[in-house]
Write a structure and sequence with these properties.
With 84 residues, this protein is mainly alpha-helical. Helices cover 75% and strands 5% of the residues. A two-stranded antiparallel ribbon has the order 1-2.
Length: 84
């Protein structure tokens, strides 16, 4: 249970930082968690495609790739939102 809560906290931090890198305004905690989870999945997928090693890992999550994935995800969301 403690590991799950720590993963949620890590997802919230990664999501918030990824959104900030992409230039998005503040979101709520649940939105940051969702951004962090999607960013971790996207970043890990990109790292596997590029056959890149995980730079920094915490709780088996590659932090650098998760952050990059969250920033890309938020940039795409921002571009789609501006277009509409």
């Amino acid at each position: 249970m403690l590991r799950f809560l720590m993963l949620l906290l890590l997802a919230a931090l990664v999501g918030g930082l990824g959104a900030a890198i992409a230039g998005q305004r503040r979101q709520g905690c649940l939105v940051n968690i969702a951004i962090g989870l999607v960013g971790a999945a996207l970043g890990t997928y990109l790292a596997n495609i590029l056959k890149a090693p995980p730079f920094i890992q915490l709780l088996d999550v590659p932090i650098a790739w998760a952050l990059l994935g969250a920033a890309i995800f938020m940039a795409v969301i921002g571009a789609v939102a501006r277009r509409q």
